[in-house]
Amino acid sequence: MELALYLLARAVAGLTQALPLRWVARLGRGVGAVVYWLDARHRRMARRNLNLCFGGEKSPAAIRALARENFRRIGENFACAIKTAAMGLDELRPYVEFISPQLQSTPRGQPARRMVAAIGHFGNFELYARVGQFAPPYRSATTYRGLRQPSLNRLVQRLRGRSGCLYFERRSDGPALKAFMRQPGVVLGLLSDQAAGQNGLRLPCLGHECWTSPAPAVFALRYDCGLLVAVCYRIGLARWRIEAGFDHGKTNPTAFERCYIDHEGTLIFCGEYYVPGREVWQHVPELRKMADIKKISVAYADPTIFDATMQQSNQPSQPGKAAERAKSINELYVEQGFELFSPFSGDRSDISFAARLGMHWSNLDKREPSVKIVCRNYAEKPVPGLHNWDCPNLLWELMRRRRMKLTAQQLLSRNAAEALVAKDEHANDCMKYVLMSHPEPTIKTFREKALEVTKPLAQMGDLTSAYIRFKQMEDNEGYEDDAGWYMGQPTPRRW
């Protein structure tokens, strides 16, 4: 049986590699269309998953069309993967674009940094193996699980051999992989869109929690590598673009917001540090330059920076010094003499933060806002750097917050308050930790609550219903005069 499978697979591979690439792509799409009608179980699974993600905005006919196209593209990807495995780099260039500033901008004469790429089954995913050819300073590698049939396994590895990528079998090549990862100028691609059993992570994807593997992050921490996300996009028939970027911990800004609290409890944000692309030991000297930094009593931070497996020290090592162990980001700040951070243990929800901020900025026709932001030089883009008496980046991030546009069907099935979209949340998170660590602002008076309920009824001309609703609220909550009632000897009020 194994011999028959081997001969069949070899014949299919040989025939596929003999045809032009575009013919192969069309043939694969045709095979995928046939499989769509024959494989009822996976057809139902595809439709069910598409309904979970897009059922509220696409018709049943559109869902079925997406499912059919998905099967066609799977057939196209598998067929093209066999064909491109036999093509040289010059033959591939007209069909493949490779974009990765991190991998393609290594200065000459300097050793390339080790990298780990989190990849997935997107487009012609076998093209990830060509990274080392498109980015010459790097040697690429990945892991695989060998097939049960030795002859088929040898055939697959022979097909992949022209890519120049090293393949390590997960169960037997552990020592060889470890030795490879200790060398400079290597990039390891690990699939992260697969279930990883009890060691996996459940993270949101298209509005639902899905399993993913933490292996890319674990390897990046263990071997002191940069972490990239690489995606192979299908941009046309037999045409792909591979993009790799987002170096973990370097691209996103480090944000620090300074807040004053006056005698009335008003929070005044006046001063910030907002800089991307630096290490901890580079941030500390700049943070020390901030005005009133020594007067800050506490700085609440994301609790994940206290995780001892989060990051390794990248500060230049000293001769004879032992290799650094895995440390938390907070430990790295402490090593630099910056001991200011405390883990925030309150509500970290963006929805709760937006609601709390709205309470501070409500009823402004009757009172002063209880949260103020000093911004003398607002800009429509980030302004990196140290701003001693200004918060332009905090205001810029708040201005970019918006609500997702929901369809009529989604409004019936989803809470509109959950559709908050925030693209940049670095300074916002600092503000959230301060805001959510303080009490809510003063609650609304009875008159304000009653007015909110009865005003819409009165505007519609239904005065009877408005009066009835007012009396119900009066009976349930009791009437409280704005001036308050005082018993005994009058005393000064303090708020």
What this model shows, in words?
The protein is α/β, with parallel strands linked by helices. The chain has four domains: 2-84, no CATH class; 92-245, no CATH class; 254-316 and 324-435, Nucleotidyltransferase, domain 5 (2-Layer Sandwich); 446-477, no CATH class. It has 18 helices and 19 strands. A hairpin with a 5-residue loop joins strand 10 (254-261) and strand 11. Helix 2 packs across helix 4. The longest helix is centred in the first third of the chain and has 25 residues, at 60-84.
Number of strands: 19
Average pLDDT works out at 80
Range of helix content: 25-40%
Helix count, DSSP H or I runs of 4 or more residues: 18
Reported by name, the CATH topology of the largest domain is Nucleotidyltransferase, domain 5
Q: Which regions contain 5 or more consecutive residues with pLDDT less than 50?
A: 309-317, 410-419, 479-495
Largest sheet: number of strands, sense, barrel closure: 7 strands, mixed
- Return the CATH architecture of the largest domain: 2-Layer Sandwich
Bulk shape: globular
- CATH classification class of the largest domain: Alpha Beta
Question: What Rg, in angstroms, do the CA atoms define?
Answer: 30 Å
Helix and strand layout, with pairings?
Elements: H1 2-18, H2 21-38, H3 40-54, H4 60-84, H5 89-92, E1 96-99, H6 101-104, E2 115-119, H7 131-134, E3 139-144, H8 150-160, E4 166-169, H9 174-181, E5 186-191, E6 201-205, E7 208-212, H10 215-222, E8 226-236, E9 239-245, E10 254-261, E11 267-275, H11 280-288, E12 299-301, E13 311-312, E14 326-327, H12 329-335, E15 341-343, H13 350-360, E16 371-373, E17 385-387, H14 392-400, E18 402-403, H15 408-413, E19 420-421, H16 426-435, H17 446-459, H18 463-477
Parallel strand pairs: 1-9, 2-5, 2-8, 3-4, 3-5, 11-16, 12-15
Antiparallel strand pairs: 6-7, 8-9, 10-11, 11-17, 13-14, 18-19
Helix pairs in contact: 1-4, 2-4, 3-4, 14-16, 17-18
